[in-house]
Each structure stands twice: as structure tokens, then as C-alpha cells.
Amino acid sequence: EVQKLNQQLEEKNGEIQQMINQPPYEKEREILRLQKTLAEKEKAQATSDVLCRSLTDETHQLQRKLASTAEMCQRLAKCLEEKQRKEKANSNDQIPTERSHQLLDNEPSLQALICNLQDENRMLKQKVAHV
């Protein structure tokens, strides 16, 4: 193991001697190449940081929208349940009143609204999962 390390040390010393013995213009060319590589990596890192921040902001925004949509769905579901209970109670009376007609007329629009919100909720969950 010591011999292996000594051999690696000799190889590194040889590389250093080779760099020292290079003409100055080759050294400068190597320095410029390394500086260019460093600048490219710094630029890539900055771009990555900006994208990461952007995705984080978008994730938070989608999570807030998802929470508000879920809350709206819960409220609409409660309203629908109440209206269905009232409709049941009114249907037991055998005499349809104007209020029960309104409930019957509004029920399809509530169902459509709930379906739309559920679809939006599902899409937002997919976006959050994707992000």
C-alpha cells in the first residue's frame, strides 16, 4: 500500500514538473480554460438556484390553491347535504312549494360546480406531485 501511494506521489510530482516545464503560453491557456469552466459552472449553478426558487414558489402557490379548493368543496358538499335534507323533508309534505322547486332547479348546477371543483382539485394535486 505504501509502494502504491509512493507511486501515485511520483506520478503527481511528474505532472507538476510537466506543468512547470510547460511554456508560459500553455500555462496561460490552461488557466483561461479553467477560468472559463469555472464561469460556466457558476452560471449553471445560478440558473439552477433561480429555477429551484421558482419551483418552490410555484409549489407553495399550488398548495395554497389546493387547500382553498378543498375547503370550497367541503363547504359545497355541506350545502348540498343540507339542501338534500330539506328536499327530503319537503317531499314528505306532498305539496311542492316554491322553495323545493328552487332546490330542485339548483341541484344540477351545484352538482356541476362540485364536479368542476373536484376536477380542479385533482389537477392541482397532480401539479403539486409533479413539482
From TrEMBL:
Sorted UniProt keywords: Coiled coil
Keyword Methyltransferase set for record: no
Entry superkingdom: Eukaryota
Compositional bias of kind Basic and acidic residues: 1-14
GO cellular component entries: cytoplasm
One GO process term, biological-process aspect: toll-like receptor 2 signaling pathway
Region (Disordered): 1-25, 84-103
Protein name: TNIP2 protein
Species lineage: Eukaryota, Metazoa, Chordata, Craniata, Vertebrata
Protein encoded by which gene: Tnip2
